[in-house]
Amino acid sequence: MISRLVGTVLAARGQRLVVGVGGVGLAVAVTPQCSLAAREGSEVSLHTHLIVREDELALFGFESEAELDAFELLLGVSGVGPKSALGVLAHLTPDDLARAVADEDEKPFKTVSGIGPKTAKLIILQLTGKLAAPRAAAAARPGADARADVLTALTGLGWPERTAADAIERAAVAAPDAAGATGTLLRAALAILGPAARP
Predict the structure, then answer these.
(1) Half-sphere exposure of residue 181, counting CA atoms within 13 Å on the CB side?
(2) CA-to-CA distance for 194 and 12, rounded, in angstroms?
């Protein structure tokens, strides 16, 4: 099991880093925040989870142990695969996740592509009592409420939930300073969807 990865960033593309370790480049799936922070040629240290399947080995990397722990707990939820679990952590910090579960709030999960109402309920049900208590609200990642509000608006206009969630994520990554403002994020997501994609 590969539990920690320390090496040089050889490439950062989307939600994937290629990390050089001992002459070998290892592909690691990461959150958009981690990928955007990585610089080619810089050193990186990641806590990792290796998923072994018959046809592939998939490595997932996280900047903190808290993120890794949350990822592994999410994998234990029925219907949540590694891509969806990583998607949750792209939208929510471990504290945000703990707070949503403690408050039985499904709304933040619905901004994640692949997470529908049923799965959101299962996450809350199956993670209740398993997460550390969230820290003060000031530590929460900004933008979770705005993303949820924009998702509601876009699906109300007729876009499929997955299409809307993908546009919101792309808009938030492209303009992180605007991610916490509902109106600005909505305009950015609509610009990505474009008139040609209007339902």
Answers:
(1) 8
(2) 27
Q: Tell me which residue range forms the domain holding 117.
A: 66-139
**Residue 160 is encoded by which pair of tokens?**
């499929």
Last-in-domain residue among 103, 120, 139? 139
How many CA within 13 A on the CB side of residue 173? Answer: 19
Contacts of 162 (CB under 8 A, 6+ apart): 113, 114
Residue/partner pairs of 152-155 with CB below 8 Å, 24 or more apart: 152/110, 153/186, 154/186, 154/189, 154/190, 154/193
Report d(CA 161, CA 154) in Å as an integer: 8
pLDDT digits (tens, 9 = 90+) for 58-76: 999 999 999 999 999 999 9
pTM (2 d.p.): 0.67
Structural domains in the chain (count) = 3
pLDDT in tens, 33-53: 888 888 899 999 999 999 998
Find, among 88, 81, 82, 86, the residue nearest to 111 by Cα: 88
CATH number of the domain that residue 53 is part of: 2.40.50.140
Q: Are residues 73 and 135 in the same domain?
A: yes
Indicate whether 179 and 133 sit together in one domain: no
